[in-house]
Structures are given as structure tokens and as C-alpha cells.
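Blinded run. Sample ID left blank on purpose so nobody reads anything into the name before looking at the predicted structure. Input follows.
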Amino acid sequence: MNYERKWSPINTDEIPPPVVPGIYRPKNRVPGINSYTRRKNIRAVLKNGHLNIESKSKQRQLFSNYIVALVEARWRWTLLNFVSAHTCLWLFFGTIYWIISYNHDDFSSVPTSQNASKTIPCIRNLYGFTSAFLFSIEVHTTVAYGKRAITLECPQTVTAMCLQCIVSSIFQAIMVGILFAKLTRPRARTQTILFSRQAVINLRNDKFCLIFRVGDMRKSRILNIKPQAYVIRFQTEHKQMNISDQIELNVDVDECEQTFFLWPITVVHWIDEKSPFYKLSAADLLCSKIEILVVFEGMIESTGQSVQARSSFIECDIFWGHRFATMIGYDTERMMYDVDFSKLSEIQQVDTPLCSASEFSTLLSVLSDTSREFTTSHEFNEWT
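Blinded prediction complete.
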């Protein structure tokens, strides 16, 4: 019979209850639901793939940080900065043209008689700040309506116009580069790559394995997929990993080849002698602090760009003695395969030993030796 033990170590002085066969999981943990315990745990990588890391450096590059912030910001903020920067640039040079014309006393004459006067203005048909602002826009956009034009009377006006042409070209190149980088970046594509909310540990072919699933909701395929997994935090009663260390886990892909991502795949890490979880039992998992970073890399079929999606699993996201439910079926009416992404994180309980992989391997070897001795003894008795 299966017995389910629900125990969460709140007081360290409390003696934990004995481990009995069956399904072992923490208290107040429901499959598929983010409980308050799960939200309280500290992660280096959030479930959506964002890094929960802040880099502090004395060297600050404001310009490069501003460019990166515009690329990574939402479209509304990028467009707002785009409009604000253009307006500020026009106002800045419009103010310079107005100051030059004001110092030259070009606004003292009446607009109707300015062209008929003997004095030559710095800029023709410039009557105030509004006209200076419009002239700044015309210089930047090279509209040139034909009314406002500079003269040879003021060399500073020629210098200001040349400076505005240079600054406007640099500014336009930067803005176009930001928009192009924002349009072609594959970050939006990673939002459609889904990871299962939890990972499971069960028994396959008399071997313990850690399993999680990855699925793609778009019809455009991802080629040359490469799932990877790293342990970035591993702390138990017997062993503690340095926070700066990263241990790579050997993972395999079920259901398909790595060159073609046809439907959701199952990524399996075999817990063997090289695995850091080899001596980890179900009870140790509850008392440990573990974080596994999973990375999914591939190439977008339509654009040929590389894409990388990230997620993480902590000790509250790893379910011992479970397996994933089937999410791929065949629709006989439409004569096509049906993939139900609502079952991507659906799990089912299975009977799994609560001991560690090391203890289970030792037990299998003892049983194998005992069975071999019994067979040899039985054959010897029959021969005699």
C-alpha cells in the first residue's frame, strides 16, 4: 500500500517522522499551483527566464546603458523616447537660430517689410521662435519649403546648420539602429517556448532520472535544438556547493532528434555516479536548497536567428515519485495529431523508492549477487 507523508521542516530541532514507502512531498504543495512557499524561495533565475541578478560596477557607461535600455524596453517607452529626443533636438537648434537672429536684431523689422529693408538678416523669413523651430525641422528633415533660408551675413548660422546636419545624421543612425535591433531580436520568440512548471524524479529501467518538459506553441519550427541544465545552487546537510560554481548536468532528449523540434520534448537527466543528486534521497530533497538552471537553445526556421529560453527549478518545483501525463493524441476526425499544451505541466503519481540512487544501486547489486548465488547453488544441487 502507498502512504503519502506530508511534512515541512519548520523547526530544525524537531525530529522528522520516519520515511515510509510511497509518495513523498512537502506540506501544502499542490501539483500545478504556485503556492506561497514557492513564491518565497529565492531564485537566481526566475521562472520566466529573467535573471534575478544585479551587477554592481564602478565604471558606468551611460550612453551604452541607455541604448540597451531602449532596446529592451517596451515599444511604448521606446517610441516615447524617440519622439521626445527628436523634439528636444529641434528645440535645441531652434533656440540657437533664434538667439543668433535676436543678437543680429533681425526681429525689429516688420515681417511685411523685412525683405524690402536694406539690412540682410541671418535667416530670411524668420520672425520669431516659431519660425526658428520650423527652420530647425526643415534642416533636419531636408524639407526646404523655399521661404526660410540662411544668408552669408552671419557665419555662426552656417556653423550651426552644419553642426545640426552632422548631429542629426548621427542621431538618425542611432535611432534606426535601435528600432532595427528591437524588431529583429528573438526575445519575443522565447515567450512562446514553454517549460513545465515542475520537474519530476522517477524510476526508468531501474535508474533514477530527473525529467522536465519543453514545448513550442508557434507553428514556425526551431531547428538544431540543444537543451542544457546546470546546478547553480546545491546545499544539503552533507554537501554545500559554492554559489559561484556551476555544475553541468548530462541531459538526453526523448521523442525526437535534436535537429528537429516537432512537438514538446522530454529532457532526461540520468542520476548516476557523475550526477550531484546521486546520494540525494526524497527526505534530503525536502531539507536541501537546490536550484537548477535549464537553457533551451535553437535556431528559428524562418529567420535563421539563434534563440535562447531559460527557466529554473528549485527544491519546491521538483516532485519525487511523479511522471508527466501524455499530452499528444491523434484526432481521427481531422486526421492529424493534437497537442494539448494545457497538459504540459500535468503530472501523475507513480511508485518510486524514497532512497537515494546510490542506495538503490547498492540494493540492486546485493539482490543481483544473492540471486546469482541462489541460481548457482540450485544448479549445483541438481548436478549432484
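Unblinding after everyone has recorded impressions. The chain has eight helices and 18 strands.
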